[in-house]
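Would you mind writing out a protein's amino acid sequence and the numbers that encode its backbone to help me picture the idea?
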Amino acid sequence: MGRPKKIKRRGQSDHPGVIISKRVYRSGNVGWKARWEDPDTQKTHTVSFEKLKITSAKKRKEWAEDLSDTLADRKAELLAGAPVVEPGDLSKAIKDYFKRKEVESRDSTVKRNKYALSHFTEWCADNGVRMTTDLRPPHLAAFRAWLIAKPKKHAVKGEKRGTWLAGTRKRAPGSVNRDLQGVRNALNDLRRLGELPHLDSDAITDTLRAVRNQTPMPTFLQTADLRKLLEAAEGHDTATYVATRAELKGKGLPGETKRFPAITPFLTTVLLTGMRFGEAEGLTWKEVDLDEGLIVLNPERVKTAMGRRIPLDVSPAVLRIFNALKLQSGGKGRVFGSLTRDSAEAARKRLMGRTFKGPAFTWQQLRRCCGTFITNSNIYPGAGPWLSAKRLGHSVQVAEARYVGALTTIDPEAKSIEDAMGITDLLASVGAKTASTA
């Protein structure tokens, strides 16, 4: 008799609880799927690796191992007495999340997070993730990869207004990170409410980690460009129509009607105070104390939710502008009246156009100019970075990292921000011009 035939034992799986199966379709294409049982509901779930954009055997194995570990941890929690979590509708949970956020967050924050979550809900719908108990770390990792690869959309000429189509360019890392942050915020909120049993804070942070992004040097306007900008703003504010219909009919002299609302007062205020656009645009007379020479911003109007004081003793041009505007408005309502973001943006584009030939700029750049010139000047000897940070409403570390050493040509005798910027002469009569153009 020969030796008995050795029985071949089936090896233990590297990902117990998760079965990877192969299917060959009639077309000859090969598909791969994963199948597992939910510890909470005992229901079987199946997902296609093609939908998850996982195409290599190595990646399939890693995905299954991560899911297997998650299932094992959850089973251990249930054995230790953790309560069984009933599955909930994921889309409803996200809607409820926004109802809570609308109470405690700014409209702009809610709007930004809704845009971020729209990508997430789109991916979940395409990949069969419909219940809160379906979400697991591998899903989040697959969503992150999908979001990074998602092409940038662009407007199409000739199409209906608001029509956007996907192009060939990838979205900027900053845009991707903003969306990832919004999804992390929402998932952590749901996790704290106990609606995501298979996710913890570490898993959310790790699988939805930010994309590495290059940080360019902050750009700001030098003295020559600032002078050109103020000259363009003066030309903008004094531009008149050749003759209006009323003037041609004898009501007033031709050439007296201003073409555009004045922008110099607002532009100068943003430049010399360092306020964010929204802070300056919504500034009210209740927040301005001309006797003390202070702007006091309340927490609810500040991006960081930390109120701050902006002294005007180092920006006398702003004091002259405010005095002129207060005489006209009687000190009631908003400092800049009917100015809106749309009207300010229209003025900004006109300043940069062929008519007024001003330098390219953004409102954020003007804020950055203020921080750069204060930090590198002797206006506050030995305390420039600290008081610059207090004025602009960010950390001292930001002031030191972005502004210190950016300028070395500032007049050491400068005692005001306009002196440091070299624009004092252009702003000498800004109060009188404000009174005449407003």
